[in-house]
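Interim report, section 4.2 (structural modelling).
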Amino acid sequence: MDVLQLLLSGLANGCVYGLVALGFVLIYKATEAVNFAQGDLMMLGAFVMVGLVNPQYMGLNFWLAVPLALLIMGALGYMLDIAILRFMFGQSQTAVVILTIALGFVIRFVAGVIWGHEPQNLHSPLALGDVRMGGVVLSLADIAVIVVTLALTLGLWQFFQRTKLGLAMQASSQNQMAAYYMGIPVKRVQGAVWALAGVVACVAGILYASKGTLAISAGFIGIKAFAAAVIGGFGSLPGALMGGLIVGIIEPFAARYFPAGYSQIAPYALLILVLVFRPHGLFAQVRVKKV
Amino acid sequence: MRFHFKTSYDHDIRLFPDWWNFSLYAALLLVLLGLPWLIDSFYLGEMTNVLIWSVAGLGLMLLTGQTGQVSLGHSAFMALGAYSCVNFMELGLPFLAAFLLAGVFTGIIGGIIAVPALRLHGVYLAIFTLALSILMDDLIVILSPWTGGVNGYFAPEIWIFGIEINRWSAPETWYYLALGTALMVTFFYRNLLRSPLGRSFAAVRDSEISAQAMGVDVARTKTLAFGLSCAFAGLGGALMGLFAGAFNNETFNFLISIQLLMAIIIGGLGFIHGAFLGAIVIAFLPQFLSIVTDQLGSTSIPGLETGVFGMILIAFILFEPMGLYGRWLKIRTWLQLFPFARRDMFRRQKSYLKTERLR
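Predicted structure of the assembly:
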């Protein structure tokens, strides 16, 4: 029972990492850039939700606020692309990495100015109930996280495989110029994927905030989500979820069975091991090009 | 505008192209040497800080600016430098020996770590090094017999040839220590750039494939670049730790390495001057912001520093990717060519990105 409880709580945590990692992979798949600000976008999404729902701010109904928050974050993602990232079109990956790190700093600063640095609680109906199955206790939020994550991953995966827009996104990341020749409006497609990443970040943020308290520093789970995305192999959506689950499950077990001080190392140590032995992740997407 | 008519290869690689250039740097050196008599001890301390950041910045510049590899983990190597320096001193070595040995030690460890890191490209290398710098925090706690754990270390007394280096009673001694280190590192760096190794760094940065085609051993070049870069960062970290007076596992957190990266980008990637200009920005920005908020009469805003820093960095990447020194180069070219400068001279070429997943 003990093991099962650890496994399930790890699963729920892992799903949040997986959701943030999903955002990384989305942007990577469509623009070939890595968005280091994804964790901070998640934090921002959660705070937008807090601003809409909590009584001391606007006090809207939770279920009314969810689509509103998703819309706001989607619009914000699109604006970010138009205002900043479009200028980086065609520039190297590293420049975008540094740019998004800076963007993360700015987002954290702005959120700190608006919502303050005190930890806050989202008034979420998900945060209330517990579900007991045998000896295992799961909060409603945990179940919601798992269900939503699975649904979202499946949906986005199919979106990339099946729909025209999804294929256009893949094409524009693989070769921008060739994508232009095929009549794909590459810049607009990139705007669309940033909007999508904003929405995914908002979903992750709402679920994260439902699970516990929310602070400005929440964005730093982005680093763990990175570990997740890399372990899964950047560029693979199911891989991102798997990576998130692996990191999420390793954490509680390491905390339980390793001596104190060693447990928080586990995800990063795993990340380094994966990078050393399988440099492109467990679900690698790199293939050698035939000349 | 002066023209340099080069008649031999020695001409091309000499340290200073002409007497005018040499005298400029000589004058700068004289001003720097005389600085303790020109400014008060507070600003002297700030200048020391600038020089320390420059040493670490030069380290990262060698890797990122010259060899084109991004590292978000240099705070780990700065920590390694600081801790190994103090440990060598506790073993009874004199400061100067311990300090230099700390640099060598950090460089060797960096070179060893570079071997697996070499197989990684771009973003993967950035994430690998980021993980290193986060791990370092926990490693310091785990290795508390050598590092003092969360309690950290108080910087021991530093003696060089019978002179005590003390930040409070004699700030000019610290200033000269930092200046000496910065000069040594700069001189080494400048000489490295005109050696075959430095040229192969640039070749690897510009195109790994063409470097390989020209017979550059890419793996060896990257390892050496990483090792040397870590050695400089270690020296910078040792100075930073000792200058702070006390340091523990949180002194060198991963934000330091991100700040370092930002410093060299704001200063200008790939230029020695850039490391110094970036260090000036990074060391004086907090002071400047606190003065501005005081003037406006508002209370201090938490997180303002990093926020403003992020905004400055975004502005630089969007509008002046070559950094402060690049801007100066453009102004200088404009002045030298005066009526003949063209507007599009430095325009970025239009480029399209291809995936790195299909290689």
